[in-house]
């Protein structure tokens, strides 16, 4: 049916096939990225609460390369070290003064924003495909039906044998549009929910980190 379709319908179908292939590639890629992030973040949380000492935790960050929480900890810890060096002129990471807490909070916010952007990379393509693919397919269908009516006008016959092939070719565009849109929408919603959970986890970790540093500054 695709080979016998008109050039406009063929172009529409090719666009939809391209969008579908890219969408599936993004779905598989984001599956690996998001699930690695979730797994390593949970492992890092267990490690963080087990060790408790910032200097010990910082030495084990390489074991959690895909954890957004490890990025948050690294950025916040480095900010603490910088603040301590500015105040005392030496490296004393376990005797923090919380006067630099605002800098640490900003570092945590920057790291959180950066990690969320990294996790959400390519998701807009899924959202776009899910939104417009059915309409692109519908455009191809309408154009194909117009061609069918034009052929009816030229042949002067409206028999099923004349009409059916053109209409079936036209409807192919709608079918492919739906086939491209449905996985894209499902994948987008699925990964957006997972990333939202990770974002909440990062916010909670940031608050816990700031609370720990504040308690350390009061000692």
Describe this structure in words.
By secondary structure, the protein is mainly α. The chain has one domain. It has 6 helices and no strands. The protein starts with 6 loop residues before the first helix and ends with a helix.
Quick take:
It contains 6 helices and no strands. It has helices spanning about 5-50, 55-60, 70-90, 100-120, 125-155, 160-219. This is Flagellar motor protein MotA.
**Overall number of structural domains:** 1
Strand content: under 5%
Largest sheet: none
Taken in chain order, the helices and strands follow as HHHHHH
In whole angstroms, the N-to-C terminal distance is 77 Å
Strand elements, count: 0
User: Structural class, judged by helices and strands?
Assistant: mainly alpha
Structure annotation, total helices: 6
Radius of gyration, in Å, reads 28 Å
Low-confidence stretches: none
**Average residue pLDDT:** 84
In percent, how helical is the residue content? over 70%
Shape: rod-shaped
Question: Could you name the key traits of this structure?
Answer:
6 helices, 219 residues, 84% helix
Task: Give the helix/strand layout.
Elements: H1 7-51, H2 54-59, H3 68-88, H4 101-119, H5 123-155, H6 160-218
Helix pairs in contact: 1-5, 1-6, 3-4, 3-6, 4-6, 5-6
